[in-house]
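Progress report, Aim 2. The chain analyzed during this reporting quarter is listed below.
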Amino acid sequence: MSVEWGILPLGIEESDLVMVLLAIFILALLVIAMFIVFPWYYAFLGTLFIVFCILYGVSVLKQKEE
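Predicted structure tokens for the chain:
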């Protein structure tokens, strides 16, 4: 199925794709829960924190590859 989407030729295996989709789903649930529980400005700051942590992790992994 993911071959039809054109994702596998980019080097992503199906098991990795499933793990990425699961991680995105869990993060989406976390963000929705933050907006339900906290005031919007705390939830927005928490969402920004999560995004910047992900970007920092990606940049560290790219530096280790080089």
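Residues 2-65 form one domain. The first helix runs from residue 2 to 5. These observations will guide the mutagenesis work planned for the next reporting period.
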